[in-house]
Amino acid sequence: MESNFVDYVKICCRSGKGGRGSVHMHRAKYVPLGGPDGGDGGRGGHVYLRGNHNYWTLLHLRYERHVFAGHGQNGGKSRSTGADGEDKYIDVPCGTVVYNADTGEYICDVTEDGQVVMLLKGGRGGLGNWNFRTATNQAPRFAQPGEPMRELTVILELKLLADVGLVGFPNAGKSTLLSAVSSARPKIAGYPFTTMEPSLGIVSYRDGQSFVMADIPGIIEGASEGRGLGLRFLRHIERNSLLLFMVPGDTDDIRREYEILLGELRQFNPELLEKQRVLAITKSDLLDEELQQLLSADLPTDLPTVFISAVTGYGIAQLKDILWQALNSESNKLAAITSQESIVHRNKDLSALQQELEDEGEDEEIIILDEDEIEDVEDIEEDWEDGE
User: Fold this and answer.
1) Among residues 37, 64, 107, 248, which one has the fewest Cβ atoms lying within 10 Å of its Cβ?
2) What angle, rounded to 10 degrees, do the helices at 316-327 and 174-181 form?
């Protein structure tokens, strides 16, 4: 069954071409030597990206592979300017990053609801012959053509906006924690890789306050090199303000497992290590107080740690307090989540781009028809409907 969570789409965009300027001479019964009065052509339509908080995935663009703006109309007589081409708006969820599909170059980032970014500019309309009249050339019989349209194939990549991102190996209890502290209901089972897509939940805190928590599929060793599902979804924690590392209490070596997770994030994006971190030891209902004290002696000392059990509720209140204090600390302002300047986007590596497209099922070639070919297809469809 195909998932409704789509966070990676490749589409082709094309702006409109400008209309031609008009070559026209004014003709009226009582106006001798009327002179040129050809109007300008209209501009071609632009292609815009627009942030829309009503969308949370790119599913609506999965089968809309072509976005074409309208062409500008030609100029007319009496200095009439042609109509501008229709602009096209591509609504995307907040947190969408756009890359050039051919070069892997970063183009733009849409992070706020209502934010509008011009992706492609339409061609300017040509000037009519009225603009070229001079004292020595009072009847110009030429005009400008409109500027051509522009085409661009882009990759839209969604990176979830959340305050807290859960990082851990499969079966670390991430989905259980999310379901315990929020109204989210991710799939929970006793086998690895239960979570196949990211989940968001709103965690309630004191005095009606809240923060957003994001759960991603479990990371395994080598995820930064393409193993497991982690590489596909690691990008979702790039926007998280705080990372909550989760290691089960029955793990043989808690410190080693934490360092493996840290190493995978370092290889994927070294900037992730600059985020504030909290370590939660899950499934602590299996540990007595004496065993917790023994384990605490070997835990990392450079970040807050807390023993929790999402099943019994043990340590959950303490965990919320730690997360809230960390989120609102001076060094970790929530406003930095949506700040354009706080995120440095890297261009995609061309050597890995094709493999990434194949993994996401976006490697198929997008066929673009020109206007003559579109008319031929329409004629064939009409003949088919007529039974010929």
Assistant:
1) 64
2) 90
Helix, strand or coil, per DSSP, at residue 197: coil
CATH number attached to the domain at 8-159+360-382: 2.70.210.12
**How many Å apart are CA 36 and CA 79, to the nearest integer?**
9
Across the chain, the runs of DSSP E, i.e. the strands, are 8-14, 47-51, 66-68, 88-92, 96-100, 106-110, 116-120, 151-158, 164-168, 199-204, 210-215, 242-248, 276-282, 305-307
Cα separation of 254 and 244, whole Å? Answer: 14
> What pTM was estimated for this model as a whole?
0.70
Lay out the sheet containing 164-168: strands in order across: 199-204, 210-215, 164-168, 242-248, 276-282, 305-307
DSSP line for 45-100: PPEEEEE-TT--SSGGGTT--EEEPPPPPPP-STTPPPPPPPPEEEEE-TTEEEEE
Q: How many residues does the chain have?
A: 388
CATH topology of domain 164-337: Rossmann fold (3.40.50)
Give CATH 3.40.50.300 domain extents, the chain. 164-337
3-state secondary structure 208-242: HCEEEEEECCCCCCCHHHCCCCHHHHHHHHHHCCE
Cβ atoms of 13 and 102 closer than 8 Å? no
CB of 213 closer than 8 Å to CB of 164: yes
* Beta pairing partners, 120: 47
Q: The tokens of 359 are what?
A: 């993994």
Answer whether residue 117 shows pLDDT above 90.
yes
pLDDT tens string 181-240: 887 666 555 544 555 567 778 888 888 888 888 887 766 665 445 554 545 667 777 778
> Which amino acid, one-letter code, is at 76?
G
- What does the alpha-carbon distance between residue 163 and residue 218 come to, in Å, rounded to a whole number? 19
